[in-house]
Amino acid sequence: MIDPTSFKNVRLRGGFVIADVQFTDAPMVDALEREAVAQTRIIGREFRLFLQAGLSERELSISLYHEILEAATVGSWPPPGSVLEFNEGDFERAAQDAHEKWGKATPKNLNRMLQSYGFPEE
Q1: Nearest Cα to 110, choosing from 122, 95, 88?
Q2: In the 8-state DSSP scheme, what is residue 78?
Q3: How far apart are CA 19 and CA 26, in angstroms?
Q4: What is the pLDDT of residues 29-83, one digit of tens each?
Q5: Which residues have C-beta within 8 Å of that of residue 83, sequence separation ≥ 6?
Q6: In whole angstroms, what is the distance from residue 72 CA to residue 100 CA?
Q7: Which of 31, 22, 29 is nearest to 53 (CA)?
Q8: Whole-angstrom distance between the N-terminal and C-terminal Cα of the chain?
């Protein structure tokens, strides 16, 4: 089982930190007003993740991979060329691929994914 507290204050490649991970029963929407299962707020170099309560372990893992890759891309200037033109579908495919390649999301596996896309160690 994925323990969300294991991600709190985790340092990520690119100089980011996961400051908080919270579950919510409240409905979430993305920037295009579509239903979402996760959101990340970026404050400086910190990521604050909000995840829909009740996700399966697989859904939670893929959501963590997706949110971290997307947030690191948005929060970097410039982002690595490998993710420069990613859209929402690309982030989702990358998250699913990461889950298949490295298994459930862990701090170590999130950093493996970021490394594979060229995020520097900081």
Answers
A1: 95
A2: S
A3: 20
A4: 987 888 999 999 999 999 999 999 999 999 999 999 999 999 999 999 999 999 9
A5: 69, 73, 90, 94, 117, 118
A6: 20
A7: 22
A8: 29
Question: For the chain, how long is the longest CA-to-CA vector?
Answer: 36
* Residue in the block written with tokens 């862990």: 106
Alpha carbons 21 and 81: distance in angstroms, whole number: 28
Give the integer Cα–Cα distance in Å for 4 and 86: 26
Taking the model in full, what pTM does it have? 0.96
pLDDT band (50, 70, 90) for residue 1: confident
Token pair in block for residue 54: 């009740």
